[in-house]
């Protein structure tokens, strides 16, 4: 079930302007991702932030692993590119961290919700418990210096833009959405079902495999973050 869900999500996200994705070694469980911030008011606007995303065999019962390929100056990004973000933590309430189950990963989450949460985190850092203490202190005490540091990372990120790839902007992405809406474009459930030769919804598949896959997830999944 995991590979079918991931392939469906991959095809869906491939149509979006704010990310550029590909499979690593044609492996549906390993994605190359670039996040492209389209909010012109963001300090990260115009950057091409490459990352890798690896999925467990029991996805979506356990969360994927995400990390930026280059260091990114941000209070919630570790030096190795991993993130401190609740949505990527294993399912269930964590009394040690105080995170509620609703803040952490659940099988109804999708890659899109993870990526959008990360994009939101870039501009809404959690500085009370930073992964990068120096970045958190700089953001609080000297926002202009913080912006200058982010600009340096952004300029370095542009070296990762692949040949022939046209970087979207706020204006071009907005026009693209207008064209899609005018054409009545939509990624419907029926189209997805045709592609994968089935009619079951994700929810129905979860119900059907609830006992076996759910038990396996409980045995194999460990929260490392």
Automatic annotation (TrEMBL):
SMART domains with a match to the protein in the record: UBCc
Signal peptide extent: none
Region (Disordered): 179-225
Keywords, comma-separated and alphabetical: ATP-binding, Nucleotide-binding, Transferase, Ubl conjugation pathway
Catalytic residue positions: 84
Domain UBC core: start-end pairs: 1-159
Superkingdom, taxonomy of origin: Eukaryota
Positions with biased composition (Acidic residues): 190-225
GO MF term (any one): ATP binding
Protein family per UniProt: Belongs to the ubiquitin-conjugating enzyme family.
Protein name: Ubiquitin-conjugating enzyme E2 2
Lineage: Eukaryota, Fungi, Dikarya, Ascomycota, Pezizomycotina
